[in-house]
Design a protein that fits this description.
single chain, alpha/beta, 7-stranded parallel β-sheet, 48% helix, elongated
Length: 1041
C-alpha cells in the first residue's frame, strides 16, 4: 500500500506531462543549436579541449563510459570548469576531426572541429575520471559541413547535400562498415577532403590551462559604448602578437577529444530554464499558464475559468478600440489562454498596448515577449509614449539592464517627478471609466431606440396613407382624439353593440348613457344605433387610433432626445474616453510608486536589485535575481518587455510571477523559448498569424522523432508539439478555447488587401479604407523581354523596368510633394534578384534620396511587420524560369506577406506570359489585378454605375445633394458595410426610417462606430425629418461641408 502511494506521488511529482514536454523541448533546442556553435575550436578562447591519445573505444565499442587517468591535471580542470558552468557551457565527446584549411573557399575557412559527437559528462570515480556518454545517438556537425559545402547564396542546395549525409550518420556502436559508408558519402560531397590514416596529420594542441599572457578574460569586463573600441583594438593587437603556425591541408583524422564549449548565448538561458521547469513538482504548474496544457492532457476541468457572462465590460484603453480588440481584453478576463490571430495591418501592436493599459489600470502585472527585438520595441515605445510614469520597461540585453539600474536609482533618489501636471489626473479612477462608459452606452441605446422608432413612424405613416384611401371622408370623427377619448369611444361601441339585441330598462339606460358620452366626445347632435353606423364608427376609430400612434411615436422620440445632438455627444465621449484612460493610468502608477517609496523594506530590495543589475560577477547577479524578492520591481515597473531568448537574463524563473504574459509575433516564435514565458505567468495571450512568415527550425526530423519517442509523447500530441514545424501560435490555436481574429484592416487601400482577404482569410477582414476612385492602386507592368539567368534567379530586364519606374515615381513625388516624401519598398521572392536590385538602384538614385524616401530592398522576410506607401514587386518569374521557381514563389506565407506591405499602391512587374501561367496563387493574383484594372476602365467610361441605392429615399436625397454641386457615392463598401451616401469623400449620410433592400449585419450605432473608426464623420437624415422639411435636413448635413 505504501509502495503504491509512493509510486503515485512520484508519478505526480516527477512524470507529469509538462516535465516530459520540457525535457523534449530542451533536447530539441540543444540539438538544433549545438552543431552550429563550433567550427574552429581555436576561434573562441572560451573553448577548452583535451585530445585523447588512446585508440577510440567509447563509440566504436558502444561503451557507456570511458575510464580516464584521474591524475591528469588538465582533465581535472576540465571537469571542474564543466561543473561550474553548466548553464553557459556543455561537454561533448568528439570523434573524427576536421582539421586544416579549405583552400578553395573564398574565405579560406580554418577548421578544427569534430564531425561526430555526443554530449558527455566527466565524473570522478576513485583515482579515475569517467567520461560518461549522455546520448545513444551520434550528432553530425552540420555547421562545419555547411561552411564547407556553401559556394554561394544557395542555402537550399546546402540543405539538400546535408540531407544526403545525415542519412548515413553511423549508429552506435560504430563499425568499420558504417564508418566506411559515412566517409565515402562525405568524400563524394566534398572531393577535396582527405581521409587521413597518418597520425602526423593529427591535431595535438590541448587547450585547458589558463594562459594569462595570451588571452585577456573579458567575461567580467563591462562593455559599454565608451570602452568598446578600446577592447576591440586590444583584441586585434593580441591576435597580431600570436605566432601563426603552418595551416595544413583539409583532412579528416581518426581522433577523439573531450570538449567544453559554450552554449550559444542566445539559447543557454532557455535550455537552463527548461530543465528547471522539468524538475518542478506538478503542483507548481497550477499557478501558471502551463496548467492549461497539463489539465487538457489529464482531462481535468479548469475551475479557474469563469463562464462568459452578459455583464457590462469596462475596458480602460488609451487607443481606439475595435470590437474584436475589446473581445481579446474581455476573453483574458475569463480565460487562462487566448489565441489572437492578427492578419496584416489589423493593429496587433495597438491591441497589445490597449490590453496592457487595461491590465495595469486594474492593478495587474504584464510580461510582453517576442522573438524579435523590433516587435518588443514597438510595444514598449508606444506604452511609454502614453506618459504614465514607470509604466513599461524594456529588458534583456546589457544596455537595457544598465538603463533599468539608472532608473531605479533615480526613483530611490527622488529624481523622478511624479507630480508633473498632477492636477489633470490626480482624481482619475477606474470608477470614472465605469460611469463614462455607462453614460455613453445609455446614449447609444437612446439613439438606437430613436432610429427604431423612426422606422416604426415610416411604416405606420405608410399604413395610414393606404388606410386613408380606403376610409375616405370621415363622417363621425372630425378631429384628432386623445388616448382616453379613443378608449371611451371603444367602450361605447362595445356597449352599444352588446345591447343592440337586448331590451329592458337597464339596456336602454346603458345605451342612453353611452350615446350621450359619444355625442359629447365627437361633438355631434345625433347618432343612430344601427349596425352599419357602428361598423363605420369602428373603422374611423381604427384610423384615428393609427394617427394617435403616429403622434405617440413622435412624442416618444422627443422625450428620448435629439438624435443629432446625442450623436455629437457620443463622439465627444469617445474622444474623452481615450484621454480618461491615460489619466487613470497616470493616477494608478503615481499612487503605486508613492506607496512603494513609503515602504522601507521594498526600497532596500530595489536598491539591491539596482546594484545587482550592473554587477560584473554573473553568478552573483543570478543568485540575487533568484533569491531576492522581485515583487518591488514589478510594483516599480508593472510591464516588462523582453525577447524570448533574453528573458532569463532579466527575470527570475518563478511560477505565475506575472498576471498575464503576451507573446507577440508568435507565428515566428518556437515553442521551447515560449515555455518559460508561460511558466512565469498565470494567463497568456498569444498573438500571431499562421498565414504570414512561419517559425523556422533546422532540427533534423529524425532527431525530433527520436526525442518524441524517448519522452513518451503520445501520438495525438506529437502532431501539435512538433518543434520543427509548429510555432507557438499553432500550439495556442489548439489550446485556446476563445480565440479571436482581429478583423479591422487599416493599412492598405481595398484593392491591395482584398485579394489576400479572399484568398487567405475567407473574406473575414473589414477593410477600413475607401478605395481611391482616381488612382490606379494596383498596377501590372508586363516585361515582354524578361528572362532569368541560368545560374541564378535574376531577371535583368525586369530590374531595368523597375528601376525606370522607381526613378519616375521619385522625380514626380519630388515635384509634387517635396516636404512629405512617399516611402517605397522593393520586394522580390528571390535573393539573387534582391542583390542585383541593391546594386542597380543606387546607380540612379543618390544615397540622400534613398534615405529620404526610405527605400528598402529585400525579400518578404525583410518586410515582415513593415510597410511602405508604394511597393514595387519584382516577381522575377519568366517563361524560361525553372518549375521550382513558381513553387517557391507561391509559398502561401511568403506570398501573403509580400502582397500586403503597400499602403497606397502596389506595382507588379511580371515577365511570364499571363495566359500560360501555372495554376496557383500567383496566377489568381495576376487575374485579380487584371479584373481590377478592367473595372476601373469601365467606371471611367461610365459603362457601369458604382452607385448602389438600397431604397428610394437614398436616391431622392442623393439627387438633391448632387443638384447642390456635391459629389455623392451611394452604397460604397467600407469595412464590409454599405455606407448609404458618401458626400465629397468627407462624410457619410446614413438614411433612417426606411427599409433597405440589403439587410445590414450590425446595429445602427455599431455601424456608425465602425464607419467613424474608418475616418468618416457620420450624419443622419430620417424619413420623418425629410418629409417635414427636406431643406432643413440639407442645410444641417451640409453646413460644415
Amino acid at each position: 500500500m505504501l509502495q503504491e502511494a509512493t509510486k503515485a506521488l512520484n508519478s505526480a511529482f516527477n512524470n507529469s506531462f509538462i516535465k516530459k514536454l520540457s525535457q523534449y523541448l530542451h533536447d530539441c533546442v540543444r540539438e538544433e543549436v549545438k552543431s552550429s556553435t563550433f567550427r574552429n575550436l581555436k576561434g573562441d578562447k572560451d573553448n577548452k579541449w583535451i585530445f585523447l591519445k588512446e585508440q577510440e573505444t567509447l563509440l566504436t565499442q558502444g561503451l557507456e563510459y570511458l575510464k580516464l587517468d584521474g591524475s591528469n591535471p588538465n582533465l581535472t580542470e576540465l571537469m571542474i570548469q564543466s561543473d561550474l558552468s553548466t548553464k553557459d557551457k556543455y561537454l561533448i565527446y568528439g570523434y573524427m576531426f576536421l582539421v586544416g584549411r579549405n583552400g578553395k573557399s573564398k574565405k579560406r575557412n580554418e577548421f578544427l572541429t569534430p564531425l561526430l559527437y555526443v554530449p558527455c559528462k566527466l565524473e570522478r570515480n576513485g583515482v579515475n575520471i569517467n567520461c560518461v556518454r549522455q546520448d545513444d545517438i551520434l550528432s553530425l556537425n552540420t555547421g562545419a559541413l555547411a561552411a564547407l559545402l556553401k559556394k554561394g547564396d544557395d542555402d537550399d542546395e546546402v540543405d539538400l547535400f546535408l540531407e544526403g549525409i545525415l542519412d548515413v550518420v553511423p549508429e552506435l556502436p560504430i563499425t568499420k562498415e558504417k564508418m566506411d559508408i559515412f566517409l565515402t558519402t562525405l568524400k563524394s560531397l566534398i572531393p577535396d577532403i582527405e581521409i587521413s590514416q597518418d597520425s602526423s596529420d593529427d591535431a595535438d594542441e590541448d587547450n585547458v590551462e589558463k594562459d594569462e599572457t595570451l588571452s585577456k578574460d573579458l567575461s567580467e569586463t563591462k562593455i559599454t559604448g565608451e570602452n568598446m573600441d578600446e577592447i576591440i583594438d586590444d583584441e586585434i593587437q593580441e591576435q597580431k602578437s600570436k605566432p601563426v603556425g603552418d595551416i595544413k591541408k583539409l583532412c579528416v583524422t581518426y581522433q577523439s577529444a573531450i570538449i567544453l564549449t559554450k552554449r550559444p548565448s542566445v539559447t543557454a538561458g532557455v535550455l537552463h530554464e527548461l530543465m528547471q521547469i522539468a524538475e518542478k513538482p506538478s503542483g507548481v504548474y497550477r499557478e501558471t499558464t502551463l496548467s492549461v496544457i497539463n489539465d487538457e492532457y489529464t482531462q481535468t476541468p479548469d475551475k479557474s475559468i469563469l463562464r462568459d457572462t452578459d455583464e457590462e465590460f469596462y475596458p480602460i484603453t488609451p487607443l481606439s478600440l475595435s470590437d474584436s480588440q475589446e473581445k481579446v481584453i474581455k476573453n483574458i478576463e475569463n480565460n487562462k489562454f487566448v489565441a489572437v490571430q492578427g492578419p496584416p495591418g489589423t493593429g496587433k501592436s495597438q491591441t497589445i498596448v490597449n490590453l496592457v493599459a487595461h491590465l495595469i489600470a486594474n492593478g495587474k502585472t504584464v510580461l510582453v515577449a517576442s522573438r524579435m527585438d523590433k516587435a518588443v520595441d514597438v510595444v514598449a515605445d508606444r506604452l511609454n509614449e502614453l506618459g504614465a510614469p514607470y509604466l513599461a520597461l524594456r529588458a534583456g540585453r546589457m544596455n537595457y539592464q544598465k538603463q533599468l539600474s539608472l532608473k531605479l536609482q533615480d526613483l530611490l533618489s527622488g529624481k523622478a517627478d511624479l507630480d508633473d501636471d498632477v492636477e489633470d489626473y490626480i482624481f482619475a479612477d477606474v470608477k470614472d471609466m465605469r460611469q463614462h462608459l455607462d453614460c455613453m452606452r445609455e446614449t447609444e441605446a437612446k439613439c438606437e431606440k430613436i432610429i427604431k422608432l423612426e422606422r416604426g413612424w415610416h411604416d405606420l405613416k405608410a399604413e395610414i396613407q393606404q388606410q386613408a384611401l380606403n376610409v375616405g371622408e370621415l363622417q363621425y370623427i372630425k378631429r384628432a382624439l386623445k388616448k382616453s377619448e379613443i378608449d371611451n369611444i371603444s367602450d361605447v361601441i362595445k356597449t352599444l353593440t352588446a345591447n343592440m339585441e337586448k331590451s329592458g330598462f337597464f339596456a336602454s339606460f346603458a345605451n342612453m348613457s353611452s350615446l350621450r358620452q359619444l355625442k359629447k366626445i365627437l361633438d355631434i347632435k345625433d347618432f343612430e344605433v344601427e349596425p352599419e353606423n357602428l361598423d363605420r364608427l369602428k373603422i374611423e376609430l381604427d384610423f384615428i387610433t393609427q394617427k394617435w400612434k403616429l403622434r405617440k411615436i413622435e412624442s416618444d422620440i422627443q422625450k428620448i432626445g435629439n438624435l443629432h445632438v446625442m450623436m455629437e455627444q457620443i463622439r465627444q465621449m469617445k474622444r474623452k474616453q481615450n484621454k480618461l484612460a491615460v489619466n487613470i493610468l497616470k493616477s494608478t502608477r503615481r499612487e503605486a510608486i508613492k506607496a512603494l517609496l513609503r515602504d522601507e523594506k521594498k526600497r532596500r530590495r530595489i536598491k539591491v536589485h539596482a546594484m545587482s543589475l550592473v554587477e560584473r560577477r554573473k553568478n552573483l547577479q543570478s543568485r540575487i535575481l533568484e533569491e531576492e524578492d522581485f515583487k518591488p520591481l514589478l510594483e516599480a515597473f508593472p510591464c516588462w518587455c523582453v525577447t524570448t531568448y533574453a528573458v532569463s537574463d532579466s527575470l527570475p524563473l518563478k511560477p505565475g510571477m506575472f498576471d498575464v504574459a503576451i507573446i507577440d509575433e508568435a507565428s515566428q516564435c518556437d515553442i521551447a523559448s515560449c515555455f518559460p514565458i508561460m511558466y512565469r505567468a498565470k494567463k497568456t495571450v498569444v498573438v500571431g498569424d499562421d498565414k504570414q512568415l512561419p517559425h523556422l527550425s533546422f532540427l533534423e526530423k529524425a532527431k525530433e522523432q527520436s526525442f518524441l519517442s524517448q519522452y513518451g509523447i503520445p501520438d495525438k500530441y506529437q502532431l501539435m508539439w512538433r518543434f520543427r514545424t509548429n510555432s507557438m501560435f499553432d500550439l495556442a490555436d489548439y489550446y485556446s478555447m476563445n480565440s479571436v481574429m482581429l478583423d479591422e484592416h487599416f493599412r492598405s487601400l481595398p484593392p491591395i488587401i482584398n485579394f489576400s482577404n479572399h484568398e487567405f482569410y475567407s473574406d473575414r477582414i473589414r477593410v477600413m479604407k475607401k478605395d481611391s476612385s482616381e488612382d490606379n492602386v494596383l498596377d501590372l507592368i508586363k516585361v515582354p523581354d524578361g528572362k532569368v539567368d541560368m545560374d541564378a534567379t535574376r531577371n535583368l530586364p525586369e530590374i531595368e523596368a523597375l528601376v525606370k519606374t522607381l526613378h519616375e515615381i521619385i522625380i514626380e513625388d519630388e515635384r509634387k510633394n517635396p516636404d512629405k516624401p512617399v516611402t517605397v519598398g522593393i520586394i522580390s521572392p528571390f535573393r539573387a534578384q534582391v542583390e542585383q536590385l541593391k546594386i542597380s538602384v543606387p546607380k540612379v538614385l543618390s544615397d540622400y534620396m534613398i534615405k529620404k524616401h526610405q527605400i528598402e530592398i529585400g525579400t518578404a522576410h525583410t518586410f515582415q511587420g513593415d510597410e511602405r506607401d508604394i511597393i514595387l514587386m519584382s516577381w522575377a518569374f519568366a517563361n524560361n524560369s525553372y518549375p521550382q521557381s513558381i513553387t517557391f514563389l507561391q509559398k502561401p506565407n511568403l506570398f501573403n506577406v509580400a502582397i500586403t506591405r503597400a499602403r497606397s499602391k502596389c506595382i507588379n512587374f511580371v515577365s511570364h506570359d499571363i495566359e500560360t501561367m501555372p495554376e496557383g496563387h500567383f496566377r489568381n493574383y495576376v487575374s485579380f489585378i487584371k479584373q481590377y484594372q478592367e473595372r476601373k476602365i469601365s467606371l471611367a467610361n461610365n459603362e457601369i454605375d458604382e452607385n448602389i441605392y438600397k431604397n428610394k429615399l437614398e436616391r431622392e436625397i442623393a439627387t438633391a445633394i448632387k443638384n447642390l454641386d456635391h459629389k455623392v457615392i451611394a452604397g460604397a463598401d467600407i469595412a464590409g458595410l454599405s455606407a448609404d451616401l458618401i458626400i465629397d469623400d468627407k462624410f457619410i449620410i446614413e438614411v433612417d426610417g426606411v427599409e433597405d433592400s440589403k439587410k445590414q449585419s450590425v446595429s445602427n450605432m455599431k455601424k456608425q462606430a465602425i464607419l467613424e473608426r474608418c475616418g468618416f464623420k457620420v450624419k443622419r437624415i430620417t424619413y420623418r425629418e425629410w418629409q417635414y422639411s427636406a431643406k432643413a435636413c440639407l442645410d444641417r448635413v451640409l453646413a460644415e461641408s
